Amino acid sequence: MPRSARSNPLALAVLVCLFERPMHPYEVAQTLRSRAKHESVRLNYGSLYAVVDSLESRGLIRAGETVREGRRPERTVYEITDPGARELTDWLTELIAVPTKEYPHFMAGLSFLPALDTQDALEALRLRAIALDIRLTQVRAASRAAAHAGLPRLFELEGEYEEKLMETELDFVRRLINEIEDGSLDGIELWRAFNASASAVGSDALGYFASSGPPAITEGTEERTHPES
Hints:
By secondary structure, the protein is mainly alpha-helical. It has helices at residues 9-20, 25-34, 45-57, 82-97, 105-111, 118-148, 157-182, 188-194, 204-211, and strands at 61-67, 75-80. 57% of the residues lie in helices and 6% in strands.
């Protein structure tokens, strides 16, 4: 399957659920939510039905029986096909094995941080540190609850990964706050000069900030975006 068809993790989540057993889309959504998979895969019902239609049109799943529960509307049960099972294996293997360039919003903010006054930047970073600390406490509590309930670590790996990422980010943010506060951040004098007056806009300082950073990716090697499944 072309990489362009693997841009939406929700499609992978549907394949995994149907690999387990045939389900109708509502059951897929309920299964994902009951297992807290909506914490790692963006889930909404509108997108889910569009994904199901896309997977069916590509022959990765097929419609089976139609069922009715009580007074609820009829629901079509879907099952995974042999090509769908192969796509599931290939796609999941690629996700685990191949690092990809991602574009976190925080990274974008950091890349343009000098456009903020140092005090405004400090306030924003302090707010982020507070939010991260709160979220980290919640994640740790959920992890302890899962362990206490006897859930094997295998089924909590994504939460463990999230916890490690947040610990690293919180440590980075706190160190950055300290370096701005005590003036030890390399380049802070240039930052302060850049924000000293409105006349700095368009000056050499602005050119410095715009041109700093890693070299641009050469043509033919850049990461390309693809439409969602």
